[in-house]
Amino acid sequence: MLFTAPGWAQQNDESYSQYWINGLVVNPGYTGSRETLSLLGQYRKKWTGVDGSPDSQVFSAHFPLKNDRVALGVLMLNQSYGLVKNTQASVNYAFRFRMGLGKMSLGMKAGMAMMNEDLIALQSGLADPTDPAFLASDNRRIRPSIGFGMYYYSKKFYVGFSIPEMINYSSVGSDSTFNLQLSFLPADYTYLFSSGVIVGNSPSFKWRPSAMVRYRTDYDALMVDLNSNFILLDNRIWLGGGYRFGGSYPNPVVLGNIQLYITPQLMLGYSYDYTLGNLNSSMNGVHEIILRYEFGYKINASNPRYF
Question: pTM for the complete prediction?
Answer without folding.
Answer: 0.87
